[in-house]
Automatic annotation (TrEMBL):
Gene Ontology molecular-function annotations: protein methyltransferase activity
Source organism (scientific name): Actinospica acidithermotolerans
Pathway note: Cofactor biosynthesis; adenosylcobalamin biosynthesis
Entry-linked InterPro entries: 4pyrrol_Mease, 4pyrrol_Methylase_sf, 4pyrrole_Mease_sub1, 4pyrrole_Mease_sub2, CbiE, Cbl_synth_CobL, Cobalamin_biosynth_MTase, SAM-dependent_MTases_sf
Gene name linked to the record: cbiE
Keywords, in A-Z order: Cobalamin biosynthesis, Methyltransferase, S-adenosyl-L-methionine, Transferase
NCBIfam families, alphabetized: CbiE
Keyword Lipid biosynthesis appears in the UniProt entry: no
GO biological process: cobalamin biosynthetic process; methylation
Keyword hit for Cell membrane: no
Domain Tetrapyrrole methylase: 13-194
Protein name: Precorrin-6y C5,15-methyltransferase (Decarboxylating) subunit CbiE
Length: 416
């Protein structure tokens, strides 16, 4: 029985090892441009990749040596995973330079601290979801490489980021087209320019915020590990004293911790923080890797949110000044919404947007009680609690008493 080898191709001549393996193959599978670019042995059967299932079936029934040709590094967002998932045993992988590595090399940048996301997805709905995740990643992190696709192009990324509220100069967009070929082109644009570019395929996009370069990304490659930056304590809740706020108008740590847990922020997700106040909830979400749109109508509070975000590394938080209901009607679709202020009009607008998950806090029993049936009527599974915490407070003799905080109603719903 023969062996299955996956060979990566980046446009350069294949090495001696890859050529020897290819010469022994009696079945070669790959895209049209790969099959045309390498010396397929005379008499070998070839299958041009389109739908993967016929190729998997043919590879599974083949008795001789087989080769699958793939772009760049086949083990990096590549075909190796799909072959194994299809029940095939891969004997060898001979990689080439990945398109992401080649793109960063072309622009002379290090990339161990970059987020790398794939905007490929199955079908139209999958591609839409993948594009949204890629856009949210670009909002949350200053250095992102995107593996693009026909339904998630650099142009689509730029248009979506502008629609989310970024200015043209907030990102430099490097588009690397046809890497490794004689038609290779690597060009930089601002967001407005990139939104007009129809890039040749295949291509990758690098989206870079104009921030100073760091000496090191630390000990862990990639922008985030499980939604956490490698060198911080981003899962540890910040005490109230860490936030600048006005007259105690802040979502207290006990309530905030539960609210953030219910919102489920992580890298690739977009959170709305409506009636943001001090910005404490949104900042905690941004610390966990999410992109956050914080809406606040008061100008002084907006400035305060900016200072709090700068203090705690909230690079993925964007402040939107104005009425929460107005902004909620036109902002990009969220993965979760926190409502800390704004009243029932804001809640109704959010419900009309069909947010997958929402969390709201209220001070009055009447308002909290009216929310549950409203959520249920819009297709949400709704729950709520009264949270009442007492903190230890020191007494003059060194002992402690319990200092009660104001009770808070916390209501949340998940779209069924």
């Amino acid at each position: 029985m023969g062996e299955l080898t996956v060979i990566g191709y980046s446009g350069a001549d294949l090495g001696a090892d890859a050529l020897a393996v290819l010469a022994s193959a009696t079945l070669v599978v790959g895209g049209a441009r790969h099959l045309a670019a390498v010396p397929v042995p005379e008499g070998a059967r070839t299958i041009q990749l389109g739908a993967l299932e016929p190729a998997l079936d043919a590879l599974g029934r083949h008795d001789g040596n087989a080769v699958v040709l793939a772009s760049g590094d086949p083990g990096f967002f590549g075909i190796v995973r799909k072959l194994r998932a299809g029940g095939l045993e891969v004997a060898r992988v001979i990689p080439a330079v990945s398109s992401i590595a080649a793109a960063f090399a072309a622009v002379r940048l290090d990339w161990d601290d970059a987020a790398v996301v794939s905007a490929h997805g199955g079908g139209i709905s999958g591609s839409t979801r993948s594009l949204r995740r890629a856009v949210n990643a670009c909002l949350a992190h200053p250095k992102v490489a995107v593996l693009t696709g026909p339904r998630a192009t650099p142009r689509d990324l730029a248009k979506a980021l502008l629609a989310a509220g970024l200015d043209a100069g907030d990102r430099v967009v490097w588009i690397a087209e046809r890497l490794g070929t004689d038609q290779e082109r690597v060009s930089s644009y601002d967001l407005a320019e990139a939104a007009k570019v129809r890039a040749e395929e295949p291509n990758v996009a690098l989206l870079l915020a104009p921030v100073p370069a760091r000496e090191s990304s630390g000990w862990l490659a990639g922008a985030r590990a499980g939604g956490i930056t490698a060198n911080d304590r981003s899962l540890v809740p910040l005490p109230d004293e860490e936030f600048e706020h006005r007259d105690g108008q802040i979502t207290k740590m006990e309530t905030r911790t539960l609210a953030v847990s219910l919102l489920g922020p992580k890298f690739g997700r977009l959170i709305w923080d409506l009636g943001a106040g001090s910005g404490s909830v949104g900042i905690e979400c941004a610390r966990r890797g999410a992109a956050v749109l914080a809406v606040e109508r008061d100008a002084e509070s907006c400035e305060r949110i900016g200072r709090n975000a700068a203090r705690h590394g909230g690079t993925g938080l964007y402040i939107c000044k104005g009425d929460a209901a107005d902004h909620a009607a036109r902002m990009p679709d969220p993965d979760a919404v926190f409502i800390g202020g704004g009243g029932m009009d804001v809640l109704r607008t959010v419900l009309d947007r069909r947010a997958p998950r929402l969390v709201a806090t209220f001070a009055s029993l009447e308002r909290a009680g009216s929310v549950l049936p409203l959520l249920a009527g819009h297709g949400y599974k709704a729950e709520g609690i009264l949270q009442q915490a007492s903190r230890f407070a020191p007494l003059p003799d060194g002992t402690h008493r319990l200092a009660a905080q104001n009770p808070v109603f916390l209501v949340w719903g998940e779209l069924l």
